[in-house]
Amino acid sequence: MVSKKSKKKQDKVQVDIVADANLLPDQRYYLQKDKVVSFSQKSRQFEFRRIAEKSIELINPQFEKLGWDTEHDIMNFFIVGGEIDVFIKGTS
User: Is residue 22 part of a domain?
Assistant: First the structure.
């Protein structure tokens, strides 16, 4: 299990999909004996089913960018009422 703090450090995460092979036809498959044929308590029976896996990369919705936001226009700091106001020390 991944902690909440470490989830916020990566902007993208790698996840594995495990599904029936017919849902991932382009992937290699392996056999797993877990398909229930009979729920009888005396003679419970299972069959094989094909399972495939695939890794995908997702954008992490919990990612928090660290540091200051440096995307700004410094000239907006000086604009007051649509005109540029610059104050120079020692002048009036």
Answer: yes
Within-domain flag for 39: yes
- Indicate the helix (H) or strand (E) that contains 77: helix 75-78
Q: Quick check: is 89 in a domain?
A: no
Q: Judge if pTM exceeds 0.70.
A: no
Residue 24's pLDDT is: 94
What DSSP designation does 5 have?
A: H
What is the number of structural domains in the chain? Answer: 1
What tokens does 54 get?
A: 């695939």
Q: Report the candidate in 62, 71, 86 with the shortest Cα–Cα distance to residue 4.
A: 62
What whole-number distance in Å separates Cα of residue 69 and Cα of residue 32?
50
Burial class (CB in 10 A: 0-12, 13-18, 19+), 88: exposed
* Segments forming the whole domain that contains residue 33: 4-84
